[in-house]
Amino acid sequence: MPDSRLKKYLDKKRRTVDAxxxxxxxxxxxxxPVVHEAMxxxxxxxxxxxxPILCLAAAELCGGTAKRVMPTACALExxxxxxxxxxxxxxxxxxxxxxxxPTSHKKFGEGNAVLAGDxxxxxxxxxxxxxxxxxxxxxxxxxxxxxxxxxxxxSRGMVGGQAADLAMSGNGKNRNGEKTPDAxxxxxxxxxxxxxxxxxxxxxRAGALLAGASPVRLNALDAYGxxxxxxxxxxxxxxxxxxxxxxxxxxxxxxxxxKLTFPALYGLEASRRMAxxxxxxxxxALSLFGPRARILNDLADYIVERQN
Amino acid sequence: MPDSRLKKYLDKKRRTVDAxxxxxxxxxxxxxPVVHEAMxxxxxxxxxxxxPILCLAAAELCGGTAKRVMPTACALExxxxxxxxxxxxxxxxxxxxxxxxPTSHKKFGEGNAVLAGDxxxxxxxxxxxxxxxxxxxxxxxxxxxxxxxxxxxxSRGMVGGQAADLAMSGNGKNRNGEKTPDAxxxxxxxxxxxxxxxxxxxxxRAGALLAGASPVRLNALDAYGxxxxxxxxxxxxxxxxxxxxxxxxxxxxxxxxxKLTFPALYGLEASRRMAxxxxxxxxxALSLFGPRARILNDLADYIVERQN
Lengths: 308, 308
Known about the structure:
Two copies of one chain form a homodimer. Chain A is globular, with a radius of gyration of 19 Å. In chain A, β1 and β2 form a beta hairpin. Chain A is mainly alpha-helical. The model of chain A is unreliable at 171-175 (pLDDT under 50). The first copy, chain A, is 71% helix and 1% strand. In chain A, α7 (139-153) packs antiparallel against α9 and α10 (215-242) packs antiparallel against α14.
C-alpha cells in the first residue's frame, strides 16, 4: 500500500494523465471505428499510468512542468499499452484476460488487436513529435526523446526482451544450450532489463530531457530508472505466484506458460531481497536531489510493496 | 517496363538504398538473434524500394541531396516492410508467400513475425529521429517528418486502411450496410487512399520537408504523391488478376480473400482508365518544376506500366 501522501500524488497525476489521454486519442466515431474503439478499450482498461507519472515526476524534479511533457507522458502509456495488446496475442502469451477484462483479441478479433497495437505504437511517436508544438520543448530535445524511446521500445529493448521471453517459454523445450544456471541467469537478466525496465528507464529519461536536465541529473534519473525497472519486473514475477487474483485480474500465467522468472530461478525470498536491493540502489542514485526526490523515493518503495 | 533511362536511375538508387539499409539494420548476431534475423529477412526479400526512391527524388528535386535524407528513406522502407509482415499474418490476409518466398510467420513463427514487424516500425522512427544528426537536417524539419509519417502510417492512414480492408474481406459477410454501389465505392476509396497511398504520399513529403522545400513545392509533391499512390494501388489490384505469377511471387490473393478491389467494383478496363487518369494528374501537379521533374514523371508512367 502506498502511504497516503504518495497515494494522493498518484491519484492526482493519474487523473491528469487520463484526462490528457482522453483528449488526445481519436474519438470512437473516427473511421475506421473498430481500430479506434480497440485503442481506447485497452488504454482505458485500468492502467496505473506508472510510465507517464515517472515522466512527469522526472520533469518536475528537473525544473520542468507537467503540462510541457504531457504529450510524451501520454505517448509512453500508449507504447506500454501496445506492448500489452501484442503480448497477449495467441501467438505470444495467449492471455484471455488482463486486469479482469477480456484482452483485445478476445474482444475485437486477432487481426484488429494486431492493428490496434500497431496504431497505438505509431500514435505514440506522433504525440512525442507534437511535444515540440506551441513552444513546449526544444525540437532537438524532442528528437532525443524520440530516439531514446525508440531504442528502449525496439529490438534492442522491449521487443528484444519479449522475443527472448517467448523463446524461453513453453515446457523448457527451447532452453537447449542454456541449461546451466549461469546461462539461464544471464538470459533472465536480459529479458527483465529489456522487457520491462527499458521503457520505465526511458520514461524518466524522457521527462528529464524535455526539462533540459544537466548530464549529471540525467544520469542519476537513468540509474534510478534502471533499478526500479528491474525491481518492478521482479515484483511482477512474485505477484504472479503469490498475488491476490482479484487485485491482479489474473495470476499463474507465468507458470502456465513455463516462463523463466526470478522466483523460478532464485526462489521467492531471494527474489524479494533482490527487489529491495534495487530499491536501495534507486534511492541512492537520487541523493544529489536531496529532499525534493521524496516522491520518487516513495514511488520506489511502492513498487516493491504493491499488491497489483 | 521502365524505359532505360528510368531503369538505370531506379537500379542505381535501389543499390544505394540497399547498401544504406544493410548498414543501418542491427546485425544477425545481435541479441535476440531471431528478431534481427526476421527483420533482415523481410527487408531484403526483394523490394523495389519505391518509397525510399520517391523520398530521395523529392529531396533532390527541391535542392537537397540523397545523403542528407537517407536515414529517412530507409525508415520508410522499414515501415513499409513492417506493414507487409503484419498484413501477411494468419489473422489478417493469411499469406504463405510474398515475392516467391515464405512469409515471415511461415519462416519464424507467428509470434516472432509480430515482434519483427513491431521492431521494424519502431526502428523506422528511430532512424527518422537520427536524420537530424551530423547536421543532415534541421531538428524542426525532422519532427515535421516524424509527424507526417506517423499520421500516414497510423490509424487514420495505413493501419486504418488495412482495418477497413480486413473488415470488408471474407465472402461479403461483413459488407452489411454497405451493399449499395455508392457506399462500396466510398469504402474502396477510403481503403486505397489509406492502405497504400498515404505512405507513398508521405515519402514524397518527407523528402521535400528535409530539403526545406517551399509550401508551393511541398503541395505540388503532395498532390503528385496522392495521385501516384492511388494509381499504384489500382494497378496492384489489376495485377492480382492479370499479372504474371512468376514476376509477382503470388496472384489471386485478393480473390481468395474476397477483397473489395477496383477491378471487382469497376471492371478491368475502367480501373485501367482510372489509373491512367491519376498518372496524368500526378504529372500536371509537377508542371511548376519544368523539365527537372522528368524522373518523377517517368516514375508515374512506370507505376501504371509495371508488371510486378
